Amino acid sequence: MTRRIDPALIPSQPNLSFEHSLWNEEILLVAGVDEAGRGSLAGPVSAGAVVLPPLDEIQKTLSGVQDSKQLSAAERAEQKILIESTSKAWAVGFADNAEIDQVGIVGATQLAIQRAVYQLIIKPQHLLVDYLVLPNNPLPQTRLVKGDARSLSIAAASILAKTHRDEWMTSVAKQYPEYSFEANKGYGTADHLKALETYGHSALHRMTFKPMRDME
Questions:
Q1: Is residue 61 part of a domain?
Q2: Cβ atoms < 10 Å from Cβ of 211
Q3: Alpha-carbon span 187 to 33, nearest angstrom
Q4: Are 158 and 150 in contact (CB under 8 A)?
Q5: Which domain holds residue 97?
Q6: What's the CA angle centered on 51, arms 143 and 34, to 5 degrees?
Q7: How far is residue 213's CA from residue 80's CA, in Å, rounded to a whole number?
Q8: Which of the 8 DSSP states describes residue 139?
Q9: What pTM was estimated for this model as a whole?
Q10: pLDDT tens track of the chain, all 216 residues?
Q11: Counting CB atoms within 10 angstroms of each CB, which of 24, 35, 58, 202 has the fewest?
């Protein structure tokens, strides 16, 4: 069942309310985590992890940070630079298409998040997670519905997950020019679906996803 949240509880832009509640308890190393690429037909799922400094001023510095889906590519690129330069720590993890086919998209997303968290140069004390639970991570976690719209740390993580994944898909596009990965980033656009009909799948496609599953 899809969890819903009262729209009145969603602020006009992500803020530090959840971070503050932890900072006030002397839990200062709070990592927001989020993913990108779950619905793509090809390539990896990615996850970002961001630890912001426990300072009110970071809200102003990152005032342009929103859920990555609400920003243009140019806006995400600008915010990526700010996030990476002002965070106490950040990291991005991936789980590739073979892992997605092996353990499913939820398991692979959890794996990507775990990898991002483990790559942080400082160990967080608490995780703010956008909806998912990380059952194999011992750190305390707060699971937030619409977390990328409510928590600045999670929104920042969503931008890093999206931008780094987009860069990865663009970097491999020349190896698979018929699929235009530099434009669609692996998502099921009309041109991408037409290419699948014409050329079949590539080594980067998720074979457990439609329409690849129907090709067998």
A1: yes
A2: 13
A3: 22
A4: no
A5: 11-172
A6: 45
A7: 35
A8: S
A9: 0.94
A10: 345 556 667 888 999 999 999 999 999 999 999 999 999 999 999 999 999 999 999 999 999 998 888 899 999 999 999 999 999 999 999 999 999 999 999 999 999 999 999 999 999 999 999 988 898 899 999 999 999 999 999 999 999 999 999 999 999 999 999 999 999 999 999 999 999 999 999 999 999 998 898 876
A11: 24
